[in-house]
């Protein structure tokens, strides 16, 4: 009976996620090597995605370190598919390909960083309903970008399956991702 | 004007270290900034101006939160209203 209830709860959640269909639509961005990457390139892969910016005082490095540790924990488990760590900037004006390259190399070795034109970046962030708002510039032209702080889990069909806030630890994220992998059913036919 | 590069990981850590030393000094001296001038200058020199402002606001917020947790919330007195 408990199994039946769990199955029904999962089916309800699947229906909710299908209706929400967060992360539909394509994006066309550039990675830190200047290669074109579109959303379809990640089809078939599990992805942990974080939106941030390289001039971020502390939150982005902390969240990216946590994301990197979660990926490393999952790598230690035999039989699990690999997880692609992904960073997308919310500050395309400053975070060009070179800036993103300098930034991502301090984190997980497989961390991919994406940027593009302001329009392309805005399209990607709004597909995931990410809020981003650049603050006022100081006399050096420096500014902070206020933005949603979440790590998104994307399933192999590219749609959003779960999200993790600041209070979730690397171990909690890894455990959640493992559970999703074990119970995964494609949201799209 | 040339785009300013974002701080590197080493620069970030140097900034956070200077911030933490300044905050520890402030904690020890009940937020008397005059007792921590040297560390304040060190903090300001190691962090971008925007980050100094951001961390100052963070400290104010944390203090306010601690105050709420220990003293409770006292709504401001209503101004004379009929």
How many individual β-strands of chain A? 9
* N-to-C series of helices and strands of chain A: HEEEHEHEHEEEEH
Q: Shape of chain A from CA axes?
A: globular
What order do the SSEs of chain B take from the amino end to the carboxyl end, as H and E? HHH
Helix content range of the residues of chain A, please? 25-40%
Strand order across the largest sheet of chain A = 5-4-3-8-9
Which class do the helix and strand fractions of chain A yield? alpha/beta
Folded structure, characterized:
- The complex is a heterodimer of chains A (189) and B (82).
- In chain A, the strands form 3 sheets. Chain A has a 5-stranded mixed β-sheet with strand order 5-4-3-8-9, with helices on both faces. In chain A, strands 1-2 form a two-stranded antiparallel ribbon. Chain A has a two-stranded antiparallel ribbon with strand order 6-7.
- Chain A has a single domain, classed as Glutaredoxin, CATH 3.40.30.
- In chain A, helix 2 (59-75) crosses helix 5 (170-183).
- In chain A, strand 1 and strand 2 form a beta hairpin.
- Chain A is an alpha/beta fold and 189 residues long.
- Chain A has helices spanning 2-20, 59-75, 97-104, 118-127, 170-183; strands at 28-30, 36-38, 46-52, 83-89, 112-114, 132-134, 145-147, 151-154, 160-164.
- By secondary structure, chain B is mainly alpha-helical.
- Chain B has a domain at 11-65.
- In chain B, 65% of the residues lie in helices and 0% in strands.
- Chain B has helices spanning 9-28, 37-46, 49-71.
- At the A-B interface, helix 3 of A face helix 1 and helix 3 of B.
Secondary structure layout:
The complex is a heterodimer of chains A (189) and B (82).
Chain A: H1 2-20, E1 28-30, E2 36-38, E3 46-52, H2 59-75, E4 83-89, H3 97-104, E5 112-114, H4 118-127, E6 132-134, E7 145-147, E8 151-154, E9 160-164, H5 170-183
Parallel strand pairs in A: 3-4, 4-5
Antiparallel strand pairs in A: 1-2, 3-8, 6-7, 8-9
Helix pairs in contact in A: 2-5
Chain B: H1 9-28, H2 37-46, H3 49-71
Helix pairs in contact in B: 1-2
